[in-house]
Fold these 3 entries.
Entry 1:
Amino acid sequence: MGATILIVEDEADIADLIAARLRSEGYDVHVAVDGPSGVDRCEALGPDLVILDLMLPGLDGLEVCRRIQQRGRVPVIMVTAKDDEADMVVGLGVGADDYLTKPFSPRELVARVAALLRRVNDERPPPDRLILGDVVLDVGQRRASRNGERIHLTPTEFDLIRALALADGAVLSRAQLLLEVWGYRDGAGARTVDSHVRAVRRKLGEDLIRTVHSVGYALDLSGDGEVSGHEASVVDAGSVDGGSGEARR
Ligand code: CA
């Protein structure tokens, strides 16, 4: 299941339309139809993102935004009926991250949602320690150990296994790994990725990284060769060309 999104919108037609579209993108979508229930649902759900209409019965969107932000950082896309309303809301600085003016296309909304979720993920500090079965990566010290025993990895090998670990089981294409680990330098290609994956497997365990045929690599923590969960979630590598490992979408 993708990120959890709460829609606070009193116009049922609009709420239904955007909820259906976001669900079709794989998000876990919930709807509240007025201000007070928006605040309550937000507290109960702890959503990853809130789409908040400005004009709402009970409490307006400004007040809902203030209240939900008091309880912790929640990314908010504020929906307004007119451009000048959006200007006004921006001026008040209530803590919305983005603004959309009605009418907007579902496609536009989906793009804004994806962009905001990406931005928020980038803000989050990476964890200090990544635990991959019996392998532990100490990110701060850049050290790897297996069953408590220090394993020497080269800096590139460490960056490679860290990138796969942070993807949390999602498949990374060779192109994406080239971007994240090598930053395109030295004209590294798909074969470079493959040889480093082989080295990491040799050092940390053959089963730790699984090959996803003609796509790339993913972390495999199931230990039984079965693929758990994220099989379909190929991370978009944009227009990067990584030869045989080119991303499929
Ligand atoms: Ca409304």
Entry 2:
Amino acid sequence: GFIWFDGKLVPWREATVHGLTHSLHYGLGCFEGERAYATERGAAIFRLPEHTKRLFNSAKILQMDVSFTPEEINEATKEVIRANGLESAYIRPLFFYGAEGMGLAAKGLKVHALIAAWPWGSYLGQEALERGIRVKVSSFSRHHVNIHLCKAKASGNYMNSMLAHREAHNGGYDEALLLDREGYVAEGSGENVFMVRDGILYTPTLTSALEGITRDTILRFASDAGIPIIEKQLTRDEFYIADEAFFTGTAAEVTPIREIDDRKIGNGRRGPITEALQSRYFDTVAGRRND
Ligand code: PLP
């Protein structure tokens, strides 16, 4: 296969970096997670312009000067799918500082760009999409810096996510639920979170969660379907007594949550509103619905 690297398609095995790559040492870089789905008209990347926009917003927050335009990145993303003959794929664009210099100033360092794509099934397992997953509130909070920096999908932000995900796995759970510094529910390690109670759809405000593109899609679907939506700070016990809960994300798609901290959510199965939103999501990404 091929990876797009600084403007050229290079063979997969040649898309390597030096051991002194700046972003490898300090963790400053930004990335995206996108999916292409098989549709009647071939592979279609779901909401590509929005993902590219968020990637450039992340770079702006981190003050990384990217030498490519969003249009070039959009084109390159499609090229990666074509060149690899992929029908469906997970896509990973990345901006990072190379090995041209060290030190925190990172002055004048070149921002490198790469885009890779590969076939990837459902992130939390096919069974998870139907049965739902078991989740544990994490001992790691969403922010490891004392400022709200959640608009950037930045590699330096994922230490907590990784520690939280591992902690949940080591404890026998499928995924972690991270709280913000005040103790309100923020999001999963790589997913936004929703709950349903008495027919109302709730999701945390975006003060401590990534502006998920799947989250936005689900909010649009719910609004179309006339489901009332409330965005507010939510506590973990509100989730404990919810009728339904689910995660959203490009990787996790729409994954029902059947248990949080060993408490069954609703009847412990995928709830009706979750199922309706999930099925509309899969119809839309596969091009069976035009929205
Ligand atoms: N929250 C975090 C921390 C993420 O890394 C992701 C991943 O993409 C999401 C939420 C979901 O965002 P999206 O739906 O745009 O993929």
Entry 3:
Amino acid sequence: MRMIFDPRQSAHAPALEMHNGGWVAHAEVPGRAANIGAALGATEAPADHGLASITAIHDPAYVDFLRSAHRRWLEAGREGDAVGYIWPVARRRDVQLDRIDAMLGRYSMDAGTPITADTWDAAYWAAQSALTALDAVLAGDRVAFALCRPPGHHAGADYLGGYCYLNNAAIAAQAARDAGATRVAILDVDYHHGNGTQDIFWNRGDVLFASIHGDPRIDYPFYWGHADERGEGAGEGATLNLPLPHGTAIAPYLAALDQVLAAIRAFAPDMLIVSFGADTYEADPISHFAIRTQDYAEIAGAIAKLALPSVIVMEGGYAVDALGANVAGFLSGL
Ligand code: OKP
Ligand code: ZN
């Protein structure tokens, strides 16, 4: 299996995130990719597909913001990482401002996703890794792995959040459509709901978004991922959410996965994108499922039975020491 990663993805290293009322060390660390890379052996660098595949998903004004935010932060006399402290209340009129603090609010959903001097490059190359894994599958490989870091599934068309800046899975799904796939399914098995991916494809019937995740009534990202969210317009029924309770172990997890896989089969896609997070792991420091290292191959085995050309895109997983083994276990089951 080809495994794609660019060393420039490692330069992004935000210092702090707002967590439960205080600033704590950021959980989405470069060591995550290092641990995965060590477990997988050699990875290959992505090809540069340019900006067009990114702006096919993301608002160009948001992309400009991402590229310029840290410079604007420094120009405003600040130091360290750029992070917002004010957000427009939902449905507030869209005032266009270029003050960095206003822009951070306009283009973010939380205070856990700082922008460093290296964030744009890292996010750009993570997206290129996803696009290069897609190339492998379009060229006939049954499966390829993009070691995306930073992750992507919380990022919307015009907002960052949840450690995510560019939505790697959505960018790959759109590129697959543009390369001729008629229907694309995105299966999100990160612990957290992929709100950005859901938002991006909410009104579209050509991309199915199906997710199993911690119940958003009690878990981040709270405002998305409830069982009654099913898409709208042409996208009605092309969003599927299965929230599960804290403590979910492999048996009920596989039962939920069976439901989701049946929906994917019924959708009859030409291509599968998997947003894979290993934060369903029992010892994950910020999540609450009870999946064991040996379970990941079984989860992947069930997914592999779809027998679809598949791009695996890395999302979360914060138990850094076990991350490589969990990812390697998952990929072995494919
Ligand atoms: C990113 B991914 C706030 C903690 C919430 C955000 C979690 C982002 C997870 N007290 N942190 O889906 O793994
Ligand atoms: Zn997650």
